[in-house]
Amino acid sequence: MKLAVMQPYFFPYPGYFQLMAHADTWVVFDHCQFVNKGWVNRNRVLHPNPEKGWQYITVPLSKRGRFDFIDDIEIDDSSDWRKSLTGKLVHYRRAPNFRKTMSVFESAIGTPNAVLSRFLTHSLRVLADHLGINTKIVVYSELDLGIDQVAHSGEWALKIAKAMGAEHYINPMGGQALFEPAQFREAGIGLSFMESIIRPYGQNGYDYVPNLSILDALMWCDEETLRDILLNDFTLHPA
């Protein structure tokens, strides 16, 4: 079983789904500290003004403590933020897949669940289904793996892999420095790092802006091209 573990991100960039598509089981790692100004509750899409390039789309959060875990945080529903988000995508109406993508977007944000991690898990499942990704998605906080503490942050992956009986663990290339490959070898678990090399695609009137939310790729790319990007636009490096 090939395993990948990642924090839940809000409409993440295509590389996130490349990793998901390459794993047999995906663990939504929600029992970890929320990082402010990260990708858990925000991402980037094109700005209506091509000269400005991109803008953020954000899920507003209720008041939280500095060290709160993701699965303890709730969404602030005091404003109609879903309508505001939709408004930030209206300028994509000239994109070839606008209507289809907006339907997926509305399904992804349609859950009334106010718990951030559950909201994000729902959106990831909606997106995975639309992208034809059949990877099993489970949520760390809902599992009973008996993992109490780790010596360093990279050890979370090893302990989760052991507890779930994984034969191979895959992580994004950017986190390579956190891992100690010798620990995986001693445990008999393979370890690889995925380097995403996503080809540019047309954004109709914009200088290409890379690494935007999957929403942008869905707007502009036909299904065959996007599927090819997810399955082939990366290099897998063994540890």
From TrEMBL:
InterPro entries named among the record's database cross-references: WbqC
Pfam families: WbqC
Organism expressing this protein natively: Marinobacter fuscus
UniProt-recorded name of the protein: Glycine transferase
